[in-house]
Amino acid sequence: MQDKQLEKSIFATMSTDKKRIPETGQDPEKLLAAMESFKSGDARWKEGRTWSMVYQVDEAHNKFLKQASNLFFSESYINPFAFESLQRMEKEVVAMTADMLHGDEQVAGTMTSGGTESIFLALYTYREWGRKAKRGCTEVIAPATIHPAFEKAAHILGLQIKKVQVGEDGKADVEAMRRKIGPGTLMLAASAPSYPHGLLDPIPSISQIAQEHQLPFHVDACIGGFMLPWVEQLRPELVHPWDFRLPGVTSISADTHKFAYGAKGSSVLLYRSMTYLRHQFFITTDWAGGIYASATLLGSRSGGPIAAAWAAMNSLGRQRYLELAGQVMAGVDQLKAAIEGIAELECIGAPCMNILAFATRNNRPDIFVVADALAEKGWYVDRQQRPNCIHVTVMPQNLPVLQAYIDDLRSAVAFAKANPNAKAEGNAALYGLMARIPFRGMVAQNVRKMFETLYGNPVEEDASTEPEPAKWMGWANRLLSFNPFRR
C-alpha cells in the first residue's frame, strides 16, 4: 500500500488519466496557452540551469531553425524521389559532414533521427555485411564507457556487446580490446569522446588493430562530431586524429542536433564507402503495395530536421562554429580552474572538449550531498556512477550564468564539508545506492516497472517465475531519477 502511494506521488505531475478525443474541437489559442503552462515544471534550460539535453546558439538562431523547419513541415521523406528538395539537403549535409571529418569522395552516408538510430544502423549494417561475408560473427568489442545505445541495438539485433574495462586514464584499454578479439568478433567500437567524462578514446591505436584483424571499426562521435574538429584547430594538444584520416575507421556517427546546432532530432551516419552503406538499405519486392525500400530505420521521415540541419550548417559556417567552440572552451577553462581551486574536488581524466566530470577526492565529502545542494539552488544536476561524479557539458546558454554556478558549487562543497554526517537525499542518495548494489538485474527489473507505470498499466509478474525484490529495492527504484536522453 505504501509503495502504491509513493508511486502515485512520483507521477503526480504527469497526467496518467485515459483521455478521449474531444467531441468538439477546442479553441487553438486556449490549447496553446495550456501547452505553454505544461512547461512550468520543465528543466530551465533557457536560463542556463541545465548542463545537457538542449544545444542552442541563441534565440535568433532558434527562430531561424523554426522557420527553416516549418518550410518542410508537411513533407515526408519516405520517398526521396517525390521531394527532391529534401534529397538535395540530405546529400549536402552528408557531404559537408564528410568533408569536415576528412572523408574522400568515396565516403557515403545518410541522415537519421538521432544518435541512437545512427548507432543502431551501424550495427545493423555490419551484421548484414557479416552475413553476406558468411562470417557468422555477433560480437562487438567496445570499452565499458561506450554509450548504452550500442547495448540497445545489440539486444534488438541479436548481437553481443563485449565490454572491456577502461584504463586508469578512463579511456579504452587498447591491449585489452586486442585480447578480446576472437573468432566471433564482428566489429570494434569506441567513443570520440565518451559522454560521461568527455574522454577521447585512443582511436589511432584501435584503428591499427581493426586493420590488422580486418574488422569494421565504428567511432561514436554523436556528441563530439561537430565540436572536436573546431577544438582541434584551437587546441591541437587536446585532440588527436580520430576520423577518416585513420584508415581503420570505417564509419562515424555525428549528431547535427547537438553541436551542429540543428533541430532535434537529426544525426549523420557516414561510411568509408558504399561497400558498407549498401548493407544498410532494406528492400522487399513482393508487397501488394509495390516495391518497398528504405535507406534508414524509419519509413516516414520528417523533413523538418533535415531542413533545419542544412540551414544551421549553412547559416553558421565554419568561422562561426570555430567562434562558438572557442567561447565554450573558454568557459571550460574557467570551470576547470574553479574546480582545481577547490581542494576537495578533482576532474576525472583529461577531457578533450566542452564535456567534463568532477568528483570529490575519495568521495569526501559525499559528491551527491554536493549535488543535492546544487539542486536546491535550482541547478539541474547530472549525477553519474562508476565513479560517483557530476557531469557538465558547457554550452553557450551556460556562459552567462557560469560564475553563479561556480559560486554555488563552492557553497555546496563548503556545506558538505561542514556537515560530514549529511546524507544525500532523493535522486542523489539513490544514485549512490545504485552504485553499491551488486544485483544490477534487480535494478533493471524495477526501472522496467517505472516505465510500465509511465506508459500504461504495470504487468503483474508471475510470482512463481520472478523473484520478489526486497521492499527497499522497490522503493528505491521507483524514486530513481535517470535520464537516458541526455545525449
Structure description:
The chain is 42% helix and 12% strand. It has 487 residues and is an alpha/beta fold. Among the domains are: 69-313, Aspartate Aminotransferase, domain 2; 437-479, no CATH class. The strands form three sheets. A seven-stranded mixed beta sheet has the order 1-7-6-5-4-2-3, sandwiched between helices. The protein has a four-stranded antiparallel beta sheet with strand order 10-11-13-12, covered by helices on one side. Strands 8-9 form a two-stranded antiparallel sheet. Helix 1 packs parallel to helix 16. The chain is globular, with a radius of gyration of 23 Å. Residues 1-13, 429-434 and 465-486 have low confidence and may be disordered.
Offer a concise description of the structure:
It contains 16 helices and 13 strands.
Q: Can you give keywords for this protein?
A:
7-stranded mixed β-sheet, alpha/beta, disordered N terminus, disordered C terminus, globular, Aspartate Aminotransferase, domain 2, 4-stranded antiparallel β-sheet, 487 residues
